[in-house]
Amino acid sequence: MGVDRAEDRSRSPRKNGAAELPVDAELLDGHSAKEIFEDRSARVGFTYDDLICLPGQINFGVADVTLESHFTKKIKLKTPIVSSPMDTVTESRMAIGMALEGGVGVIHTNMTIEEQAEEVSKVKKYKSGFITDPICIKPTMTLHDLDRLAETCGFTGFPVTEDGRMGSKLLGLVTRRDTDFVKARKETSVSQIMTKAAGLGDFLARFRAAAASRPPDGALAA
């Protein structure tokens, strides 16, 4: 009886009358990747514990290998790494980490729609190239208030303008590099530690050079 149940639970691609490997096949004690992943009659998913990959000889180069997979019917991933939409797994920080590796993080739904939108917004604004609607701050803002804003937004770099609005005169840029080692955060204003606009020329030149040589990121969130 136990054998029957084990056979019923089997995920072997040879189940249901699938063709056996020839006697002289290289993998006499297992299945080829083609058998496992291209057998349309199997219709099963596999976990890490279900498969053991055995080393063998190949007759092709690494450049011929592609891991491109469908995430949806219309979206393909060249790096098929996806994090689970669980409340203990994927929020903005995980989605950002997945995106930086070329994968996708699926934000979980165990929160309000507004909170979900906020998490996705944090991911989309993280190092996403040229941001057309940056969050600007006033030069009079204290580092204490800046910390709270950074915690809400999920990033730590902000342009500093005269009135804290987009379109007004740019005074400088404040990043984590400027704020990390300042202890008196309630007494220190952004204008005291920011990188002034006059000194941003070299920074922007280095940024543009890095951006030109950087490959495009994968999708950031779903």
Automatic annotation (TrEMBL):
Gene3D superfamilies: Aldolase class I (3.20.20.70)
Region (Disordered): 1-20
A Pfam entry, by short name: IMPDH
Keyword RNA-binding: no
Compositionally biased intervals (Basic and acidic residues): 1-11
Location of the CBS domain: 130-190
Keywords (A to Z) from UniProt: CBS domain, Metal-binding, Oxidoreductase
Domain of life: Eukaryota
InterPro entries: Aldolase_TIM, CBS_dom, CBS_dom_sf, IMP_DH, IMP_DH_GMPRt
Membership in a protein family: Belongs to the IMPDH/GMPR family.
PANTHER family, A to Z: INOSINE-5'-MONOPHOSPHATE DEHYDROGENASE, INOSINE-5-MONOPHOSPHATE DEHYDROGENASE RELATED
Name of the protein in its database record: CBS domain-containing protein
Organism of origin: Prorocentrum cordatum
